[in-house]
Amino acid sequence: QVQLVESGGGLVQAGGSLRLSCAASGRTLSTYAMGWFRQAPGKERELVAAINWSGGSTHYADSVKGRFTISRDNARNTVRLQMNSLEPEDTAVYSCAAGSGPFLNGRTWSEGYWGQGTQVTVSS
Length: 124
Known about the structure:
The chain is mostly beta strands. Helices cover 4% and strands 49% of the residues. Strands 2, 4, 5, 6, 9, 10 and 11 form a seven-stranded mixed beta sheet that branches. The longest helix has 5 residues, at 106-110. The protein is globular and about 40 Å long.
């Protein structure tokens, strides 16, 4: 079992930055792909960014490319999401997930582990 806990969310003005962290316990994250998802009220959950086990491959949603950066530190069992140039449209609950498989395969994440999420609110 893997337990994931997110932190770093909060309220920020448009144009500002936040850094989310996802800390794992129970098992090492080093063999898992990691993803950050978000879900805004009334919208479907979407994959924002993902990173493979080594950090050598990443994926970003078009809406966040050039603004968000995902990284991982396997020695510290953590994954981070640096979010810059935030927009009101980025407001959502952000959750991290650990999975095994291709980034864009839903089963990778549905059969993996999830955190509880952290709220990010961007004011205009």
